[in-house]
What does this fold into?
Amino acid sequence: MGKKVIIIGSGFSALTAACYLAKSGCEVNVFEKNEQVGGRASVFRKDGYSFDMGPSWYWMPDVFEKFFKDFGYSSSDFYNLVRLDPAYRVYFDSEKIDIQSGVENIISTFIQIDPSCENALRKFLNQAEENYKIAIQNLVYQPGFSITELITVQTALRLPLFVSTISEQVKKITQNPHLQSILEFPVLFLGAKPSQTPAFYNFMNHADFGLGTWYPEGGMGKVVEAMVSIANKYKVNFHTDTCVEEVLSYDEVAVGISTNKGNYYADIIVSGADYAHTDKLLGKNANYKETYWENKTFAPSSILYYVGFKGKAEHVLHHNLFFDTDFEKHSESIYDTKIFPEKPLFYANFPSLSDNTLAPEGHSTAFFLIPVAPGLYDTQKLHDTYFDSIVKRLKKHCGLDIKDKIEFKKSFGIRDFESRYNSCKGNAYGLANTLLQTSILRPKIRNKNLYNFFYTGQLTVPGPGVPPAIISGKIVSDFILKKYL
Ligand SMILES: Cc1cc2nc3c(=O)[nH]c(=O)nc-3n(C[C@H](O)[C@H](O)[C@H](O)COP(=O)(O)OP(=O)(O)OC[C@H]3O[C@@H](n4cnc5c(N)ncnc54)[C@H](O)[C@@H]3O)c2cc1C
It folds into this structure.
C-alpha cells in the first residue's frame, strides 16, 4: 500500500496534485468544504440554466494538454474544445474593437487603427512568444526555492524585462489609448496593475493573441469533471461537505486533520485551500504570521452576476470587455485608494452563444464580472446599483436590452468569496504576480515546521489562473514524489 495523502480543497491545483500522487501509488483523500469539487470553478445550476461560477477564459491550452498527456489522454477524450473567433470584443466609449483569431488578423486590426505601430507590435509579439517558451520550459514549473532555479543564459539575457513593466513596453508600441488597453489586458489575469507587472510577463500576450481563446463545450465545469474522472481511475476518494478545521501535528510531523465529520490521518498533507486560511488551520506551525498578508498585493476580488434571460444575446460576443469608463481610475480604486469604483469597467460573458446546453431553449445565460479591491465590505444594495449600470451600458453600447427579459439573477461578492472559499480578504484569484511577489518571492510550497506538509494553489508558485493552478499542483506533487516517495 502506498503512502496515505490528505489533500485539503478541490480546486484545480488540488485536483492536479491528487491525480499525480494517486497515479504514483499514493492513497489519496480529498476534503472539500463545499457541496461540489472544483473550487473557484464550481458550477451553479438553476431553473435549467448552468453557470460557471468562476473562470471562463480557457487560455494556454498547451498546459491542459500536458496534464492530460501525462495520464495518457488528451482534452478531446473528455470535452470538445472550440477556438473562438473572434476571440473577444472590447467596447470603448466611442468604438468597439474585435480581437480576431490569429496573430496576423489581430495585427491588421491594430494597423487599421494605428498604422505606425506595426514594427514595434511585431517585435513585441515575437518577444512575447519567446518569453512564453522560456517561461514554460524553464521557469513556471520550478518550485520557487532558490534563485538558481531562475538563472539560465536565456533568463540572464532578459534581465531588463524583470525591472521594466508591461505598461512601459506597451507605451513604446502605440500612443493609441484603446490599443494600449488591449495590450495591457492579458496581464490583468496575473492580478496586478500592468504598471506593476514585469515586462517579462508579456508572454501573456502570446497566450492571448498567439495561442488563442478557447471554449470547452459544456463550460469550465467539464475540465473539472475530466480531472475528477482521471482521479477516480486512480481511486482518489472525494469527501465533499467536509470542512477541515485543524491540522493535527506531533513534533515536526503533520499527522492528520480534524474536520466537521471527524478526524482523518495521513503520512503527507497538501493544502490547496487559500494559503492564509491554511496557515490558520496550522496554528503555531503556520508558515507566515497574519501580518505577512497585510502587506501583500492580492489579486482583485469581484462582484459577479449569474443571469438567465429570455431570448438570444444579440449584438454581443461570447467574451466582451467593457472599457467604456476610465481604466486608470478603476485600477487606482483597486490597488491604491481601495474603494468601490464609481464607474466600474466590467466583463460580460454570454456562453450560451457558443453552447445551447447551458440554458433552456430560446433562453440565454450571462455572467458579468466587476473587479474590485479585496477586503471591502459589499452590500446587496451596491450589487444592485452596479447591476443597473451594467444593464444600461449593455443597451447603450450593444443595443442588447435584457431589463425586462431577466428570469433569474444572482449576485456573488467579496463576502461570498470569504464564506464560500475561505478566501483571504475575499480575493477572487489569489496573490498578484508583481515583481516582489514573483517566483521565489511567493509564499513557499513547503511548511517550515512540519516536514510533511505542503501548499499548492494560486497563492503560491506560479500564481493566479487555471493553467498556473494546474502547474502548481504538478510542482507540489513532483516535489513530494522526488523528496519523500
Ligand atoms: C470570478 C473568477 C473568474 C476567473 N476567471 C478566470 C479565467 O477566465 N481564466 C483563468 O484561467 N482563471 C480565472 N480565474 C482564476 C482561477 O479560477 C483560479 O486561479 C483557480 O481556479 C484557483 O484554483 P486553486 O486550486 O488555487 O484554488 P480554489 O479553486 O480556490 O480551490 C480551493 C478550494 O479549497 C476549499 N477550501 C477552503 N478552505 C477549506 C477547508 N477548511 N476545508 C476544506 N476545503 C477548503 C475551497 O472551498 C475551494 O474549493 C478566475 C477566478 C474567479 C474567482
User: Anything to note?
Assistant: The longest helix spans residues 118-139. Residues 65 and 211 are 13 Å apart (CA to CA). The chain has a mean pLDDT of 97.
